[in-house]
Amino acid sequence: MTQWHLDVNESRLERGKRALDQIDGEAGRNVISALADIAPDFATYVFEFPFGDIYSRPGLSVRDREIAAIASLAAMGNATPQLKVHIEAGLNVGLTREEITEILMQMAVYAGFPAALNGLFAAKEVFVAKRS
Amino acid sequence: MTQWHLDVNESRLERGKRALDQIDGEAGRNVISALADIAPDFATYVFEFPFGDIYSRPGLSVRDREIAAIASLAAMGNATPQLKVHIEAGLNVGLTREEITEILMQMAVYAGFPAALNGLFAAKEVFVAKRS
Amino acid sequence: MTQWHLDVNESRLERGKRALDQIDGEAGRNVISALADIAPDFATYVFEFPFGDIYSRPGLSVRDREIAAIASLAAMGNATPQLKVHIEAGLNVGLTREEITEILMQMAVYAGFPAALNGLFAAKEVFVAKRS
Amino acid sequence: MTQWHLDVNESRLERGKRALDQIDGEAGRNVISALADIAPDFATYVFEFPFGDIYSRPGLSVRDREIAAIASLAAMGNATPQLKVHIEAGLNVGLTREEITEILMQMAVYAGFPAALNGLFAAKEVFVAKRS
Amino acid sequence: MTQWHLDVNESRLERGKRALDQIDGEAGRNVISALADIAPDFATYVFEFPFGDIYSRPGLSVRDREIAAIASLAAMGNATPQLKVHIEAGLNVGLTREEITEILMQMAVYAGFPAALNGLFAAKEVFVAKRS
Amino acid sequence: MTQWHLDVNESRLERGKRALDQIDGEAGRNVISALADIAPDFATYVFEFPFGDIYSRPGLSVRDREIAAIASLAAMGNATPQLKVHIEAGLNVGLTREEITEILMQMAVYAGFPAALNGLFAAKEVFVAKRS
């Protein structure tokens, strides 16, 4: 993705679908598919609020939003699948592997060494999978 | 602070003291003072590891590090004093009030609306205090 | 509040405003006011997603939703202001003081005795304030 | 389980065993078995305190207690095996799949979208396993 | 307290009352008093399970149990009142101020620097209050 | 390990390597190896800060530090790999299986029954692996 453009004529749902597709790519589409037979309305909310509302706001770049997403998910330490989605999203929107590694190492300061280690090992899995 | 320059001739402690001073400013100095009569060695560790080691690494800008700090502390939701220090630090290293507000709003997605609300109210206190 | 009626002709924002007003009452209005000068758009999101979308869904009663809100906020233990808002909301939608006390005591099982104790003391403050 | 009846002549242990059996069923028995060779006394405590004491209290229905259990475990996000036990228990005491799905979706509000997603995927596993 | 002796003829409640009194002292009694008008049964559970059951088990010394209590409460970071009670209890059962300070500093490793800092500042308050 | 001796002539890195090797043994070495191709500098920090700085401090015995580590990691509940490393380290520095089991059971009080159960099941895996 080179850049994210806001189109004010889109509905929240359309805008969110486009944003999820461009930012999270295949990993995001897999989450949405997995919701189909348990909570299809929740897939709609995932499109609408995080992506149609929040990620589409102009006040912070999508690259900066992915720094915030990776940092918070690694710090909480209880959402590994979502952390992996956002590590991949970070790569999609222009963060380098080195920058993502730095963000995860920094989490040792705020959330402890285990949170940093588990984040780094999640990144390793994503980086390896992307290489193949 | 215009920019953070790494000086490889400094010791970790000197580098950390300089970084804490430039990034966290008065709020950082207050934390260090408060440690003097309970755990002075811990003040040394605060200088050395988070600032002398992590913040001094060249792979991620100090501005980006403060996005990660604000996001993670707001998401964990159990470290309000440190969140305020880093909101102030974010302003010191070039994040705008709008950007900080966006980061905190985004935390509603990963950590829930209460985490975002409490982060926003912490920012409000910092912003008001800076104005006076 | 005797009961919450869904009006499909309302917008999400209108529906959310009505729900927040009826469920959370004054405590909810205070949160919204406090957002006005820091993040007014976030007030809109609070109306729209938690209240306009989630609380307005017909699959679970508002009383049952407040059981879930009180339990989760007490268990996480890092969102006392929001826990108090929902203890008050619980009373507004028909939970008794005894039922709320039981929910909070039960949190000792899942989140530990400190979470239960801090929840009970938060409830005590709300119950006392309502009496006056 | 049609309904849970309190028998005041039972000991805490007997009452807890009966409650665990009726509420958590096979999933609960598996937890107890797994404790036998590491901490058999802890199995006794699981019977006595959560079930013999808390679940046997008359002030809140067992159905309402399972709403609180599912909500709190999903919100904390670090206890997936116990969340699954209580999703199954919820079905045993009369919550519908739709109601459980609603509780889990609602956790997006208090604990973030990842907590809701991971809770929904845990429910999906339980629902599928029950079908077979 | 010189040492904790188990008396098998006591009931759980009597044993727990004696243990809470000897270990937590005044801080523990204050918690129990505060429960009287909101959840008196919960005061009974606090006596019975944590103190009558767990602390009275012979397999780990009360001093070692207070290390575990202080470490876990500081790491979770959302239970400051209980952390203070157990810092005082640690002093009551023979931990030195230096040892308690070391435990809290160590939490920087597992739970991050904010958890350690907030634990140290809680200890400072307890230590100062004991001096007067 | 019979005992840990501090050698003031060592660098932080040397001291940390020696401490990690003696305390965490093979489990610790595996963590370091796993970091080699994603974040080798973080391996250095793991040696230096937790082990070269904190564990080498004389104010608390290594046995007591492992009580604190096991308690905090079990209570947080989001760092199972690190909990297992420290359960093994606890055995290496003189904690008995019974003592470790007691620490984990006690976590039911502060962090809830799920945290205690998941900690006990992690210990069971470590104990079984050591036996073979």
List keywords for this structure.
132 residues, mainly alpha, homohexamer, globular, 77% helix, AhpD-like
Bin the helical content of chain A: over 70%
| Proportion of beta-strand residues of chain A | under 5%
**Radius of gyration of chain A (Å):** 15 Å
Quaternary state of the chains: homohexamer
Named CATH architecture of the largest domain in chain A: Up-down Bundle
Instruction: Give the largest interface pair and sizes.
Output: A-B, 32 and 32 residues
CATH class of the largest domain in chain A: Mainly Alpha
What is the residue-mean pLDDT of chain A, rounded to a whole number?
Answer: 94
Distance between the termini of chain A: 20 Å
The description of the largest β-sheet of chain A is: none
Helix and strand string of chain A, N-terminal first? HHHHHH
CATH topology of the largest domain in chain A: AhpD-like
Write down how many β-strands of chain A occur, each being a DSSP E stretch of 2 or more residues.
Answer: 0
Number of domains of chain A: 2
**CATH H-level homologous superfamily name of the largest domain in chain A:** AhpD-like
Unreliable spans of chain A: none
Morphology call of chain A? globular
The total of helices of chain A stands at 6
Summary of the model, kept short:
Chain A is an all-alpha fold and 132 residues long. Helices cover 77% and strands 0% of the residues of chain A.
Give an overview in words:
- 6 copies of one chain form a homohexamer.
- Chain A has 132 residues and is mainly alpha-helical.
- Chain A folds into 2 domains: 8-57, no CATH class; 61-132, AhpD-like (Up-down Bundle).
- The first copy, chain A, is 77% helix and 0% strand.
- Chain A contains 6 helices and no strands.
- The longest helix of chain A has 24 residues, at 12-35.
- The mean pLDDT of chain A is 94.
- At the A-B interface, α2, α3 and α5 of A face α2, α3 and α5 of B.
